[in-house]
Design brief:
Number of strands: 10
Shape: globular
Largest sheet: 5 strands, parallel
Structural class: alpha/beta
Radius of gyration: 19 Å
Helix content: 40-55%
Order of helices and strands: HHHEHEHEHEHEHHHHEHEEHEEH
Bound molecules: 5-amino-5-deoxy-1-O-phosphono-D-mannitol
Length: 359
């Protein structure tokens, strides 16, 4: 039940620290070693390429997963929209392994790809929140997100669970392949920092509501920008905001704006910039300048190590590869508060269903 919450979306945002802790307990032992079905670890280790298929928010979690898998396993990883891959099947490597990310386990677009994978004898894993769901039953293997039921149409805790679970699997596979960085990666500590960090962010939600009221509620459009993992988060953040608030929002690789879209920036256009990538932090600052000088209202969401005077939302410090677990949370809250303050039905945006069982 919603308990004292007005909407499930906020309840589910607030549950994310508990979800991080549960995944850590369920999938890492006391010493921090992954506890993942050996058959799954073996099967992924033997792959020469990982293909992740999903839709919507789960697709965006896959974009983050790609960065983590490539870093920790050295296995090239591709991410595709299930809806596209179903009818334009990508060219396969010799030993592909498929991962389906799906909160519900029922998404029709993903089922089409899985059916084709099964015809071709390609091994597959479904990461899902719903035990016994169709994609879980039809794939070779399943890993459960253990995030608890997600009721709001807008997906929040399933996204962070998918990012964390991909990190756990990547570490397990990397260790199996003898990768030193994977062995050294203290994911147990990382997930505990994520739990504490998310808690700190949700405890500061009043400030985020003020930003949403001031900059987003009055606006018809908005942009999210970021580089690296922040680019992936920018796409998810944009989907979340447009889905529940009906504000037209695009998520962009920060430097791409100046290749065309910057012409849309006017006085007061909200541009929300994410900075968590050590390699490109300064470059993104430059992109902020470009839009600010054209009148944009810039909101910054910045990892503590990169924070400067005047930043709006400063995130606790965390490993770059886990940064999505923190940076996405203020964007979920911005979406929630924009929708709520517009008087909309946050949990049931128009034209949408929780799981999309048609192609
Ligand atoms: O159940 P799934 O993860 O397969 O669902 C995929 C998308 O339909 C879903 O993530 C959708 O994009 C959400 N409503 C976004 O908040």
């Amino acid at each position: 039940s919603k308990g004292t919450y007005e909407f499930y979306m906020l309840k589910e945002i607030d549950e994310q620290p508990a979800v991080m802790r549960r995944l850590s307990t369920d999938y890492l032992d006391k010493a921090g070693k992954p506890v993942v079905d050996e058959k799954i670890v073996d099967a992924v280790s033997q792959a020469d390429r990982i293909y992740i298929f999903a839709a919507g928010t789960s697709y965006h979690a896959g974009l983050v997963g790609k960065e983590i898998f490539e870093k920790l396993t050295g296995i090239p990883t591709e991410v595709g929209y299930a809806s596209e891959a179903g009818y334009h099947f990508p060219m396969m490597s010799k030993h592909p392994f498929f991962i389906f990310l799906t909160q519900s386990g029922e998404t029709a677009d993903s089922r089409v790809v899985l059916t084709e994978a099964n015809k071709r004898g390609i091994p597959s894993l479904t990461m899902t929140n719903v035990e016994g769901s169709t994609l879980s039953r039809e794939a070779t293997y399943t890993m459960l997100l253990n995030a608890g039921p997600e009721i709001a149409v807008a997906s929040t805790k399933a996204y962070t669970a998918q990012v964390a679970l991909q990190a756990i699997l990547a570490k397990a596979v990397g260790e199996k392949l003898g990768d030193q960085a994977a062995k050294d990666w203290n994911l147990k500590q990382g997930l505990s920092l994520a739990a504490e960090g998310i808690q700190e962010i949700v405890d500061g939600k009043d400030k985020i509501e003020e930003l949403a009221k001031k900059y987003l509620v009055p606006s018809r459009n908005a942009f999210y920008i970021g580089r690296g993992i922040d680019h992936a988060v920018a796409m998810e953040a944009a989907l979340k905001l447009k889905e529940v608030s009906y504000i037209q929002t695009e998520g962009f690789a920060a430097a791409e704006l100046k290749h065309g879209t910057i012409s849309l920036i006017e006085d007061g256009t909200p541009v929300i910039a994410l900075i968590d990538d050590p390699v490109t932090a300064d470059l993104t600052r430059g992109n902020i300048q470009e839009v600010a000088s054209r009148g944009a209202n810039v909101i910054t969401i910045v990892g503590k190590q990169f924070a400067k005077e005047g930043d709006n939302i400063v995130l606790p410090e965390i490993d770059y590869y886990l940064s999505a677990l923190l940076s996405v949370v203020p964007t979920q809250l911005l979406a929630y508060f924009a929708s709520k303050n517009k008087g909309l039905d946050v949990d049931k945006p128009r034209n949408l269903a929780k799981s999309v069982t048609v192609e």
